[in-house]
C-alpha cells in the first residue's frame, strides 16, 4: 500500500525506485476521537 515509482533500463531491470508509505495519522486521529466520544457517552 502506498505510492511507488520505478525506473527500468532497456533490459527491463529496475535501476531506480522511490516509495512512500501512506499517512494514516488523520484516520487514526478520527478513530481515536470517535472511541473517546463513545466511551464518554457510555459513562455519562
Largest sheet: 2 strands, antiparallel
Strand order of the largest sheet: 1-2
- Give unreliable regions as ranges: none
Strand content: 25-35%
Beginning-to-end CA distance, first to last residue? 40 Å
Give the beta-strand count: 2
Distinct helical segment count: 1
Gyration radius, rounded: 21 Å
Question: Overall 3D geometry?
Answer: rod-shaped
Question: Helix fraction?
Answer: 40-55%
> Could you spell the SSE succession in H and E letters?
EEH
Mean pLDDT: 86
Oligomer designation: single chain
By helix and strand content, what is the structural category?
A: alpha+beta
Entry keywords:
about 45 residues; two-stranded antiparallel sheet; 2 strands; rod-shaped
Amino acid at each position: 500500500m502506498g505510492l511507488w515509482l520505478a525506473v527500468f533500463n532497456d533490459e527491463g531491470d529496475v535501476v531506480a525506485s522511490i516509495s512512500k508509505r501512506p499517512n494514516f495519522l488523520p484516520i487514526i486521529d478520527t478513530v481515536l476521537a470517535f472511541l473517546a466520544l463513545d466511551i464518554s457517552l457510555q459513562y455519562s
